[in-house]
Automatic annotation (TrEMBL):
PROSITE patterns: PABS_1, PABS_2. It comes from Paenibacillus agaridevorans. This is Polyamine aminopropyltransferase. Its EC number is 2.5.1.16. Belongs to the spermidine/spermine synthase family. S-methyl-5'-thioadenosine binds at Q31, D106, D137, G138, P162. The gene is speE. One of its GO terms (cellular component) is cytosol.
Length: 275
């Protein structure tokens, strides 16, 4: 019998994948965690019924969280990743030559544990000696660390359950204070087709806290609508002023020095959301 997994993206629309195996189906202390094998996209991590990552297209999201912001800061030595327990963002951060130390704080130790077992190509750098992995609430972590990081990346689940307070003005204020005086942060900010209001409200909140706010996009086939946005808030450096020649040519599959500025050119209907 054929088995199909469907993520309902609205009450009347979803995406679906044929699955060949279920490795994990477990309710953790924080969320429903499923690790499944799909025929088209390989191993897939699903949390609370939402696709988090797949082996085939994960590189787009993880590169696009990590590299635009690391290329914008001239000296990104100390990096914090909030969420990101699958390790994909950390793998990309470790490619950057100037990063001395990265701290990852995910609330759910089970995501880290199962990603190491079933997603080794994604989680492989979590044991890098330059990485410190903490299990805890990212909201609390940023409030306990003032003036500590050059770059903060928010690789969280959608704003339900444990990540609900990671999409609030109070969280962005905490991030501002956890950053050094020329720090930058980036957060994944969902898709403009089904979450337009969220993108608008995040943009408004981040603009109240940071003087420079920029939104960029990427194409991710297994995420709702395929068009994903990221919001960057910066105290000093503007990603649009980065010289292409200053961006290191890294071992990436989506992000390049040429793509850096192009990613900030948004379709008109998305531009209108963040004006
Ligand atoms: N790429 C995904 C997406 O946008 O669909 C998200 C990646 S997934 C690894 C996000 C992680 O955020 C999960 O492992 C979850 O446990 C973690 N998370 C959710 N709320 C959190 C919080 N308050 N503090 C730290 N981590 C949190």
């Amino acid at each position: 019998m054929e088995m199909w997994y469907t993520e309902k993206q609205t009450e009347s629309f979803g995406i679906t994948a044929k699955i060949t195996k279920t490795y994990v189906h477990e309710q953790t202390d924080f969320q429903q965690l499923d690790m499944i094998e799909t025929e088209e996209f390989g191993t897939m991590l699903v949390l609370d019924g939402m696709v988090m990552t797949t082996v085939r297209d994960e590189f787009v999201y993880h590169e696009m969280v990590a590299h635009p912001v690391l290329s914008t800061h001239p000296d990104p030595e100390h990096v914090l990743v909030v969420g990101g327990g699958d390790g994909g963002v950390i793998r990309e951060v470790m490619k950057h030559p100037k990063v001395k130390k990265a701290v990852l704080v995910d609330i759910d130790g089970k995501v880290i544990e199962y990603s190491k077992t079933y997603l080794p190509s994604i989680a492989g750098e979590l044991d890098n000696p330059r990485v410190e992995v903490l299990v805890g609430d990212g909201f609390m972590h940023i409030h306990d660390h003032k003036n500590a990081y050059d770059v903060i990346m928010v690789d969280s689940t959608e704003p339900v359950g444990p990540a609900a307070n990671l999409f609030t003005r109070g969280f962005y204020q905490g991030i501002y204070e956890a950053l050094k005086e020329d720090g930058i942060f980036v957060a994944q900010t969902d898709n403009p087709w089904f979450k337009a209001e969220l993108i608008k409200s995040v943009n408004r909140d981040v603009k109240e806290v940071f003087p420079i706010v920029r939104v960029y996009g990427a194409n991710i086939p297994t995420y709702p609508s395929g068009l994903w946005t990221f919001t960057m808030g910066s105290k000093t450096y503007d990603p649009l002023e980065v010289e292409e020649s200053s961006i290191p040519e890294l071992a990436t599959k989506y992000y390049t020095p040429r793509l850096h500025k192009a990613a900030f050119v948004l379709p008109k209907f998305v531009e209108d959301l963040v004006k």
